[in-house]
Amino acid sequence: MRRFLVVLLTVLLVTLMMAKVKVTFWHAMGGGHGKTLQEIVNFFNQQHPDIEVEAVYIGNYAALQQKLLAAAQAGGLPTISQAYSNWTAKLIYSGIVEVLNSYVNDPQIGLSKAEWEDIWEVMRLNCTWDDKIYAVPFNKSIYVLYVNTDALALAGLKIPETIGELKRAAILLTEDFDNDGTIDQYGFGFRSTVDHFQVFLALNGGSILQKGPDGKWKVTINSPESREVLQFLLDLKDKYALVQGGYLDGPFGEGKIAMFIETVASKPYVDAASKGKHGWTWAPVPVWKTRNVQFAGTDVIMFSTAKPEEKKAAWEFMKFLISPEITAYWAVKTGYLPVRKSATETAIWKKLVAEDPAAEVPLIQLPYGVFDPQIGVWAEIRSIVGTMVSDVLYGKKTIEEGLAWAEAEIKRALEKEGL
Questions:
Q1: Does the keyword Transport apply (predicted)?
Q2: Same domain, 129 and 245
Q3: Are residues 253 and 379 in the same domain?
Q4: How far is CA 181 from CA 177, 184, 240, 256, in A?
Q5: HSE-CB of 339 using CA atoms within 13 angstroms
Q6: Cα–Cα distances in angstroms (integers) from residue 390 to residues 11, 244, 373, 385, 406, in the given order
Q7: 92: domain CATH number?
Q8: Same domain, 287 and 302
Q9: What pLDDT, on a 0 to 100 scale, did the predictor assign at position 18?
Q10: Both 104 and 128 in a single domain?
Q11: In this predicted structure, what is the pLDDT of residue 2?
Q12: Which among 154, 219, 376, 397 has the fewest CB atoms less than 10 Å away?
């Protein structure tokens, strides 16, 4: 009997030692992006028999944010999740986001100084609050100018490099081919959203908020730079630019617009929409008063509610996700940016650049990348600015009325949060 118990205990001990550590990863990557992410997860699981990462598709970003906030209140958080920096900021206030410094700096499982600095600086900064690292970059993107190369060649135009050249090209590329009084091809297209307003505002040297030396946020939207941006958009709207709320890869593919600005994440959709219809390329966003380019995308955060062994396993996956080979593979397959400089030295990235030299264009802009304020109330501020932009573009408010209203509403939102 004693011998049997010894054998049984040995079997149980071995079983416990072989048990996999489960890491639950919530994300919002659907379609082809989701398939690529699952491939990466499967590859990690194969290489780490003691860890099982389960990638759980929650839905779009709005659904993921709602589920995270609900889980923060009621419990049931995953081990790790995709998150925009303003989501992270809101969750930091609740004390449930794991600080990653101890993992990054760990001599056994961490990253060396060279490896950490191998991540593009703008991405590192976007993951850091003061001196605390709360995230690692994941699906990062930057805005570029998408161009119908056939349309430009037909008009004898070069790709615009300045805002003035962009406006001129938009005018010259706008065509009523059949002379029926309806525009068949707009020279440009933009979305009536906060995102596109921010793109032009950054280029024009303006901002919605600025952080002062005292750490307080100052509302700076009601500025000459904002007025110039709104007037620029109004000058183009309907006459030389197609304006809509939704994405523009469809109208671009159909030849309804010759140029538009969007993030590199639109590349697969632009490619599919344009295939067999016209050639296209992308180029740096045209310069205005600055070269500042809006930077977008989510990071991966870890939750402090996880068990110690789950956190350690999650960190292994997070390191894997940002390793040069994996981030290069992710970038090549999805159009997002590789998050490590050394990823550009991998065979898969070099093959991409050899086939398509324009693939390096987004990386040229990274030194000029700017990102949103890392505050929890940013989603509410974005909503305010989005409403203002729509109201001005569609004649519900004048430029002055819109900016004054947005300024007052943003101040109220900041005061409510004690910022």
A1: yes
A2: no
A3: yes
A4: 9, 9, 14, 15
A5: 27
A6: 66, 10, 22, 9, 12
A7: 3.40.190.10
A8: no
A9: 55
A10: yes
A11: 53
A12: 154
| pLDDT at residue number 182 | 93
Give the chain's length: 419
Distance separating alpha carbons of residues 380 and 397, to the nearest angstrom: 20
290 and 301, same structural domain? no
Do 217 and 276 belong together in one domain? yes
Domain hosting residue 148, numbered range: 142-294+374-416
Residue 9, token pair as written in the block: 């205990």
Tell me the CA distances in angstroms from 172 to 70, 154, 242, 251, one per residue in order: 51, 11, 14, 18
Q: What is the pLDDT of residue 303?
A: 97
Q: Is 4 exposed, middle or buried (0-12, 13-18, 19+ CB in 10 A)?
A: exposed
Domain count for the chain: 2
- The mean pLDDT values, 10 residues at a time, for the chain of 419 residues are 50 54 96 94 97 96 93 93 93 92 96 96 94 96 97 97 97 94 96 95 96 88 98 96 95 97 91 96 97 94 96 97 97 93 97 94 93 90 96 97 98 87
pLDDT of res. 10: 52
CB-CB contact of 266 with 249 (8 Å): yes
- Same-domain status, 245 and 386: yes
**Whole-number Å distance between alpha carbons of 389 and 229:** 10
Question: Which parts of 241-292 are beta strand (E)?
Answer: 241-244, 259-263, 280-283
Same domain, 39 and 135: yes
Helix axes 163-173, 224-236, angle to 10 degrees: 20
